[in-house]
Amino acid sequence: MNLRQRKFADQIRDILATHLSHGGVPDADLSSVMITRAKVTPDLQIATIYFRLFSEGSVDKALAAFALHKGQLRKLLGSKLISRRVPDIRFFYDEAQDQADLVESLLHKINTEK
User: How far apart are CA 3 and CA 44, in angstroms?
Assistant: First the structure.
C-alpha cells in the first residue's frame, strides 16, 4: 500500500472510530465495536474496514448493523473526507488477534510439554 492509500485509509479509520466511539450510530449492536484498521484499493474506490468487539457480542449482528447503517456512514465520510468520491465501504471482522492468540497458546502448549 503506498503512502497516499495509507493516509486515506487512516483518515477513514479515524473518522469511523471516532464517530462510533461517541455513539454517532444509535444501534446497540454497534456499541461494542472497535475499528482496528482500514485498507483502500489503489484507485481509492473501495475501503475495507476491519473491526473487533469489546464485549461478548455477535459478529453477525454487528455486520448486519453495519449493512443497515452503511449509507449513513458513507454520508459521514463524504462530509469529512477531502475527496471527489466517497469510497464504497465493506466491513469485516478482524480475526488477526484471534489467530495471534491461537498461535500463542500453541507455542505455550509446546513449551509446557517439553
Answer: 12
pLDDT per residue of the chain (114 residues) written in tens, 0 to 9: 799 999 999 999 999 999 999 988 888 888 889 999 999 999 999 999 999 998 777 889 999 999 999 999 999 999 999 888 999 999 999 887 777 778 888 888 888 876
Tell me how far apart the alpha carbons of residues 93 and 9 are, in angstroms, rounded to a whole number: 17
State the pTM of this model.
Answer: 0.84
Domains and CATH numbers, the chain: 3-113 (3.30.300.20)
- CA–CA gap between residue 37 and residue 24 (Å, rounded): 19
Determine the Cα–Cα distance for residues 36 and 98; give it in Å rounded to an integer: 13
Q: For residues 96 and 8, what is the distance between their CA atoms, to the nearest angstrom? A: 22
